[in-house]
Structures are given as structure tokens and as C-alpha cells.
């Protein structure tokens, strides 16, 4: 009964996930196709939202540990998003839409750190991977439903009405969270995890020293505690992964409409199946990562994206009948790589982050996202989408190398 009650809080994120599935799919097309904005407008809007998210993420990331609370920040996030979705559906100005988009991004940055702390302190370390997978699965199913709603109803009810639906949905999340979210009784699990790290390193050091006969007088390589993987590579890798992903996918829906020549309803259908594939992958990932660390997941996801992003350049060459299918397959594989990375990243951060520092990792992702947002709008407008995907793939390759060096032993 206790375990069942502990898991009920996941459902508070279900209506929110539907709302964001709708918003994330509609906002680029709404700005460009309905309001008449350009790819430059889209890139600037995305970059400003992520730029402001950097200090915001650092500040918000300190709140759960500073006050020993998570629920109030989750509730405020849902309440704020509900109000913003109401106003964003009513604007007809490009500038006002951009402002509200930025505010939505800021409000949405309030809950991730609190959610991560809630998971980390509610479950034992060996179950973190499974818990993060379950959370992402619930949100992913909801986002897929939101994308499905866009695909089915965009012609009948239009962009504004679909955006407006986000308002009651996020208010519903607020009410469910008010009832279902419970604070962890003690904040000790992450402290125990950090305590285990030095012990593991000392054990590894002792084993290597005793088994490989390293002698300082013999000219061989001597081991030092400082020879371990550096946190700098980890942080840089997270930043570059965010940069490459935002660069490649900020204007993805525009690529599908203009270069692949898909109708808006078909674009949402492709994105729906992509989201569904990524969501279902959390089931397998959650089972695979249980009891393991997230290092292999993070590295593998980066390596996969090197090739998958390059494959997007081939989609326009297929026939009108095949191109939606090929796009769906490639994007579904990319969604799987994101699911793998997301769970691995959350697990690694929970193992490494000190109290009050969670927001720094989100800020690093925002820093990469800011640059990626600008590039995702400017590069295809000037050089085309093939150049954009080639650049993103190159950055993913660099990210993969960083993670291999960071996690290598």
C-alpha cells in the first residue's frame, strides 16, 4: 500500500504532459505559419528563452535543498503554466507570442529540480533508474497523446483552441499534485550516494595497486586519486549534447513541412509516433538500467545520434508515400536515444551533484540550448537543413568522445 501510494504522484504530470505535447508541437508552426514569423524569429525566441533559463535554473535548483521542500515549487510551476497557456492562445502578435513563450520556458524550469529531488529522496539509489524511467514514461505517454490530438483535430478546431486546452490541463495537474505529491520523510538518500563515491574510488585504487605491481622505483606508472574522470568533461558533454539537440530539432517541424513537403496534420502524426516510440522505450530502459549507473546509457545515446541525425538529410529524397514512414523511423530511433540519455543523465547527476547544485546542470543544458536555438533558426535560413544536420552530427560526435573519456577507466 505504501509503495502504491508513493507512485500516485506520477499522475500529476500526466495532464501537464499532454499540454506540453501540444505546446511543443504547435508553437514553432504557430509562430511561422499562422503569425507569419520567420526562422530567425523562431531561433531568437528559443535562444532568449534558454538564455534566461540559465540563471533561473541555477536559482530554482537551489530551492528544494535550501528549504527542504519540493511540493510547493511543483504546484507553483503548474499554476503558472496554466495561466500562461490561457494568454498565449489569445495573442496575435509575434512579439507578444515570443514574450509568452519565454515566460512559459521560465515557469517550466521551476519543477525539474524539485521533481528530481522528490524521486531521489523517495527511492533507494538502486531504484533511481527505474523511478526516473517510470516518471519519463508517464510524461511521454501524455506528450504522445498531446501530439495525437494535434494530428486529429488541427483541421477542425485550429491552433488557438488546441493551445488553449493547455490551460485546464495544467490546472488539473496542479489539483492532482496538491493531493498526491507527498514530501519525502528524510533527505538522506543522495547524501548516502555521495558518501559511497569516495569509498568506491578508494576500493578501486587499492585493487589496481595491489594487482598490477606498480612500483615508484621501477619507472612504471603510479596511480593517484586525481587520475579519475573529471567532472569538467561531464558538464561540457551535457552542454554540447543540449546544443546539438536544440540545433538539430528547433525547426524540425519546419523541415518536415518545407523540405519534405508534409501537411501539418501529417507532421503531427510523424511526431506522435516518434513520441510514442520514445515513451515505450522507457519500459525497456528502466529494466535495463536497474541497479546500474547511467554512464553507459549517456555514452551510447550520444554515439547513436551521430549517425541518426545524418540520416535526416536523406528523407527529402524519398517519394511522397515513403518519406513520412522514413522520417518516423529515424525520428523514433532519435527519440529512443533521448530516452536513454535522459535516464542516464538523471542518474549520473543524482550521483554527482552536491546539495543546491542541481540547477547548475540544468543551466549548462540551457547554455547549450541557447546557442543551439540560434543555430537551429539561423543556419537553415541561410545554408539549409543539410548543413544544420551535418553540424549537429559533428557536435554529437564530439560529445560522444567527451563522455567516453569522462567515463573511461
SSE layout and pairings?
Layout (H helix, E strand, L loop, with lengths): L1 H6 L5 H22 L4 H29 L3 H18 L5 H15 L3 H11 L5 H53 L8 H23 L19 H19 L2 H7 L5 H26 L5 H17 L11 H30 L5 H25 L2 H23 L2
Helix pairs in contact: 2-7, 3-5, 3-6, 3-14, 4-5, 4-7, 7-11, 7-13, 9-14, 9-15, 11-13, 12-13, 12-15, 14-15
In short:
This protein has 409 residues and is mostly helical. It is built from 15 helices and no strands. The chain is globular, with a radius of gyration of 22 Å.
In the CATH hierarchy, what is the architecture at level 2?
A: Up-down Bundle
> How can the largest sheet be summarized?
none
First-last Cα distance = 42 Å
CATH class: Mainly Alpha
Q: Quick check: average pLDDT? A: 80
By DSSP (H or I, 4+ residues per run), the number of helices equals: 15
Report low-confidence residues grouped into runs of 5 or more.
1-5, 188-195, 198-229
